[in-house]
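User: Hello, can you help with two protein structures?

Assistant: Certainly.
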Amino acid sequence: MVKYRQIFQKIIDFIYPPVCPLCHTGVSIHGEFCADCWTAINWIDGPHCARCGYPFISGYDFDDDVLCPVCAAGKNELDWIRSACVYDDASKQIMLPFKHVGKIKYARAMANAMIWALRDVDVSNIDIVMPVPLAWRRLFHRGYNQATLLARPIAHAMGVNIDYDSVRRKYRANMGHKTAAQRAKNIQGVFRVVRPDKIRGKHILLVDDVMTSGATFAELRRVLMRAGAASVSGVSFCRVVHAL
């Protein structure tokens, strides 16, 4: 079976040569950025918070277990969070078209970057990869759940199941341009666990495209833990970063 897959992949590569999803420069394999586009993105690859992955100022020597002020104050309830890059002008060129304009061809490269972002955490106990659910109204309007497109290759790489249907989400107005407090209030009560039998006792990894304030992850974690989950962690492609 593996041999046939390799042959099929070679045929696909011949018909559709792998290119960078941003600039279409030729690359060695599907789902990777070219060197120039990779360099333009502000990847989180330096010292960062041991719990939430918040990037620290480069050039300083931090211990591997140091926490950011938010996590040190106990305000981050997830076991850990990781993000591949900072949400800025460069990453917007990927994230916004992927999320709002149907550029789903970016999904593989984004997911590969997110898998790379998990390099310093232990994922051996993860049982379920769960894309953050979309409300049916927004799913119908957009046509796809961008978090699901990212979660599939991550779950495949980890060799675990992906859970699409254990949690439902109510429709709420878009949270763009809201403060952290407004986001936390707006997200309250939007998630409902409908399959607690699939959640109970499981270690769950949440997947989303961007983390702004962390309110979505926090609320989803709350309902999952109440349904009996053993632990909840999270990974996103990019995250908003403010000066500490």
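That covers the first. Now for the second protein you mentioned:
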Amino acid sequence: MPSEEPTTTERVLTPLAQGLFATVGLALGGATVITLSEMYPPRPGPIWLVLPAVAAVSLIVLLVISIAIYRRVGELATQWFVVGYAAAMMLWGSVLIGEETVAFVRDRMPSTLGVAGV
């Protein structure tokens, strides 16, 4: 019996291609973050319905592009695309948490430590 080796259709990606797919994911995540940041805090009226809609559309676009990349290039490219998207979301969350932490410390620390609010 001849031994059958599994066939692989996965393409080998250069570091440049991996960076390109991560950058495209970062751009999509960044566009989502900028859009959501501009609409926050929600104003009175139906604008509060738009925030989840923007997030949902972004996730649908992420899914559609991920499937297209997976079919055209392969799994590794898709993973780098999603990593770029997730990096944008985590960076945005980190900045927001950092802003709130600085405000919290500034408001509650004594002025003798040099961090009192203005």
